[in-house]
Amino acid sequence: MGFRFQKRIRLFPGVTLNLSKSGGSLSLGPRGAKLNLGPRGASGSVGLPGSGAYYTKKIWRPGSKKKRGSAPSVRKQDRLTMGFFKRLVTPKHEEDFVDGLKALHLGDELTALQHFLNAAKHPDPALMAGFILLRQKKLPEAIEQLTFAAKGGNELGTLFHKYDTDPHISIAINEEFSVHAGANPRAAMLGLVEAYQELDQLDEARTVLKGLLDLNPEDPVTRLSLAELLFDGAEENPEHIKEVVRLTQGTENDSEPEACLMLYQARALRKLGLADEAKTVLTSALRKTKDRSPELLKALRYERILAYEELGDNSSAKKDTARLFAMDADYEDVADRLM
After folding, report:
1. Distance in angstroms (rounded) separating the CA atoms of residues 170 and 180
2. 290-331 pLDDT per residue, tens
3. 3-class DSSP state for residue 299?
4. What residues contact 29, with CB distance under 8 A and at least 6 apart?
5. CATH numbers and ranges of domains, the chain
6. Which of 103, 121, 185, 274 reaches 20 to 30 Å from 249, CA-CA?
7. Pairing of strands 166-172, 178-181
8. DSSP codes of every residue in 60-127
């Protein structure tokens, strides 16, 4: 999905499940984020500078040539099939976890959910149950499962690893890249943010995002989503604007999420009456246009128009208005501003 910066930005808009090796997919949410179950090695990662987060680019597709001497592949449904004697020595919750993955692989969401709920004393099936419940809009139940999974610590991910299944939660930032989390507390917390937002429980969503920042204070995606939610509550609590300024301080313009953060930083500064400081931030953000979406660049320029006007610099404001009109004559009220 692309950003629309003059409207509310949703960084965690939903979850879908994609079983890439099978060729099938299952939606676990309206749009935006993906839980990918597949064998390791199907994609490469590219880091977001200073964030600890990454996005993926596909390296090979099923059917493409691999290096000579590699181990023969095993079909997912074969890896997830237990023989009679193996079931005799396998804990019941592991049986349900494997049967849940197999049912999900075959597209039977209801059966998969029941197996995952039966096994939900372990964080891995709880994570899966939470995302399916999120898909079904059973939000309180989803929150219960995802909260348990988020508290799983080192145990979270152990069953996925044991059965050679590698899940990823991927949050679509724009059409070019997605940021990912594996079977870890971060994945569960991303699901919790979505559930709380769907319930309009924004204070709870902010609390979860602050917990995510504790895991990785430099993650620009989490900082950006938190900045958005703080703005949503600014009318009820003006202190949120000051918190946005603190949250965005020191942001470097090294990636598109960081450029988005600079937009929020400028908006917060302008709301605090610091239009000159806002103008400086926006000018810095506009120096880089490569790998920046047109919507972001238009939003940055429009915000700078407002800053110029508050500073009484009508000449600079008019120049930016003319440039923005040339980019998009229907953007906001730029046509009226030229009259």
Report:
1. 4
2. 888 898 999 999 999 999 999 999 999 999 999 999 999 999
3. helix
4. 13, 14, 15, 16, 131, 134, 135, 194
5. 15-59+74-181 (no CATH), 233-337 (1.25.40)
6. 185
7. antiparallel
8. --TTS---TTPPPP--HHHHT---HHHHHTS-HHHHHHHHHHHHHHTT-HHHHHHHHHHTTTSHHHHH
